[in-house]
Amino acid sequence: MLCQNCQKNEAKMHMKRIINGSATEVHLCSDCARSLGYGDSFGSFGLGFSDLFSDLLGRSEKTLSGSSTLRCSLCGKSFSDIAESGRVGCAECYVTFYDKLLPTLRKIHGKTTHQGKIPENFSETVQAPQIDVNDLKEQLKLAVEREDFELAAQLRDEINALLGGAK
Amino acid sequence: MGAKWYLGTGAQNDVIISTSVHLVRNLREFPFPQMLSLQDKLKVNSIIKDAASSLGDYNFNYLEMKMLSQYEVVSLAERHLISPEFASSRDGRALLITDDEAVSVMLNEEDHIRFQVMYAAFSLDEAYKTANEIDNALSQKLNFAFDERIGYLTQDPTIIGTGMKASVVLHLPGLASLMQIPKLISTVQKLGLTLRGSYGEGAAAKGDLFRLSNSITLGISEKAAIENLKSIALQIAAQERSAREEILKSNATEDKIFRAYGTLKYARLIDTDELMELMSLVRLGAVKGLINIDTAKIEGMMINMQPATISLSVDRPLDRNGRDMLRAKRVRELLG
Ligand SMILES: [Zn+2]
Ligand SMILES: [Zn+2]
Predict the structure, then answer these.
(1) How far away, in angstroms, is A23 Cα from ligand 1 center?
(2) What is the distance between the alpha carbons of residues A69 and A63, in angstroms, rounded to a whole number?
(3) Distance B136 CA to ligand 2 centre (A)
(4) Among B275, B282, B233, which residue's Cα sits nearest to residue B123?
(5) How far is the CA of B302 from the CAs of A44, A52, A77, B12, B283, in angstroms?
(6) How many beta-carbon pairs under 8 angstroms link A with B?
(7) Which residue blocks in chain B are alpha helix, DSSP H?
(8) How far is the CA of A159 from the centre of ligand 1 (A)?
(9) Residue B162: closest CA among chain A residues belongs to which residue?
(10) Ligand nearest to the CA of B155
(11) Chain A closest-CA separation from residue B250 CA (Å)
(12) Disulfide check for B145: which of A61, A115, B1, B26 has CB 3.0–4.6 Å away?
């Protein structure tokens, strides 16, 4: 889309303005946006790497042809949809297209293995969602109150195994 | 509204103006925002809003973007509280923001959650600590999209892994005047960092303000990325100090500083570009002890004199001449 002001450059900024009570869309190139007083705010916060990603993916897609019919089960995107837009549709896409995305991740970051933090609730919700530790603790408390020490010992072992396994 | 985050001062403040840490997170149960219907976006907003309201230490204001006026939205972008992308389309988007504006959370930008913590001066450890606390507290309430192999899953794969961008804003009038910026940009790139204009791009960076941030997020821990950024920022700050010594050997620089100060004190019309250029010189003069003015006041002016922010201060849209006139008046008052 061309800039509405100069009709020459590609419009980079798209905004809704209220003019005389009705909403109007404004499309401006960065030069005109700046000269109209908006330019100063553009270009610092945006992480702005998607063009690079689309480039990288576009290239790797050409070398990986043939299986473009596979679609993500959650959002329905195919790998070529992702490559064209430079946009991954959802978290599940990363699982579905893991092998195809990996070379791109390597090109961007140089590495492919996460080294950072893990969400605090991750092991509970993903690895052991069926058994609730708090539930077992409650049973343990009741068992101790009833002086059923055999059951209590058994419950204690189960709790320790769960907590230990989650660490 | 009380004191803002930028009113603080601190270590390395002669060169390093501010610090911010951004974390990007998504909810596991929903596709990324671009794939969501308006209704689902509103659902995502309310889930995150509820989770945030239970964080006792932070009092968030919740703003639906489409309820704000044009200049309110642009002003938020000018103050780096939201991204230009976030300002460009407002349906289904919302912002959580603390009174001091130190913590802002964009909901349904390119990811469900993009939040930033801002501190004055050089405070990477503090900023990360706060961001991490908020992240941990939110993760008690929300299931974040995460994969053990490749970390936090984001719409944009260039931030996958830690989902963290940490950055510092540097004031580099010395290196800029010695034409060292292009070289610096390519050097830091090799070190896994990005240097770009904080207002405006590349060599045309307004006010000689540059943002240095980590560009790699996968295969590196948050701590390692912060340490790397910290050490490069300190090296650049040291280079900037020698560059300042160099340019201040000539009395032409001192002359420029005082001319800038004079213009700011007496001008009747000032546009944003001129303001930023002159403020850069005055800030240099202030940290060198040539002009007696608090640098926090200068930072405040650089933020609050941007076009939409100045309109916001009188709560009505101003035309260019109106803004330039009001800006000049405010600056005269502030400089006494
Ligand atoms: Zn134009
Ligand atoms: Zn998907």
Answers:
(1) 21
(2) 16
(3) 26
(4) B233
(5) 14, 31, 44, 19, 11
(6) 194
(7) 38-53, 70-78, 84-88, 124-141, 173-177, 181-190, 222-248, 251-266, 272-287, 295-304, 307-313, 320-335
(8) 66
(9) A116
(10) 2
(11) 31
(12) B26
Termini Cα distance of chain A: 53
Contact B267, B278 (CB under 8 A): no
Q: Report the separation in Å between the CA atom of B60 and the middle of ligand 1, taken as the mean of its atom positions.
A: 38
B193-197 vs B209-214, strand pairing mode: antiparallel
Lowest pLDDT segment from A40-54, B174-188, B216-230: A40-54
Pure H helices in chain A:
30-35, 50-63, 79-85, 91-96, 98-109, 122-127, 133-145, 149-166
Q: Token pair 């308006």 is at which residue? A: B38
Half-sphere exposure in the Cβ direction for B230 (13 Å, CA)? 15
**Residue B193 near residue B212 (C-beta atoms within 8 A):** yes
**B281-323 pLDDT, tens digit each:** 999 999 999 999 998 899 888 888 988 899 888 888 889 999 9
Its pTM stands at: 0.77
Integer Cα distance of A122 and A106 in angstroms: 25
Residue pLDDT, tens place only, B203-237: 568 899 999 999 999 999 999 999 999 999 999 99
Q: Which residue out of A5, A12, A31, A41 would a mutagenesis test of the B interface target, given it has the greatest number of B Cβ atoms within 10 Å?
A: A41
Q: Could you give the CA distance from residue A80 to residue A84 in angstroms, rounded to a whole number?
A: 6
- Asked if A44 and B198 come within 8 Å (Cβ–Cβ), the reply is yes
Single out the residue of B51, B102, B63 nearest to residue A121, CA to CA: B51
Cβ-defined contact of B165 to A49 (cutoff 8 Å): no
Alpha-carbon gap, residue B247 to B284, rounded angstroms: 11
Chain A partners of B218 at a C-beta cutoff of 8 Å?
Answer: 105, 108-109, 111-114
Query: Which residues does chain B have within 8 Å of residue A120's beta carbon, measured at their own beta carbons?
Result: 136, 139-140
Q: Which two tokens stand for residue B61?
A: 């204001």
Contact between A139 and A152 (Cβ < 8 Å)? no
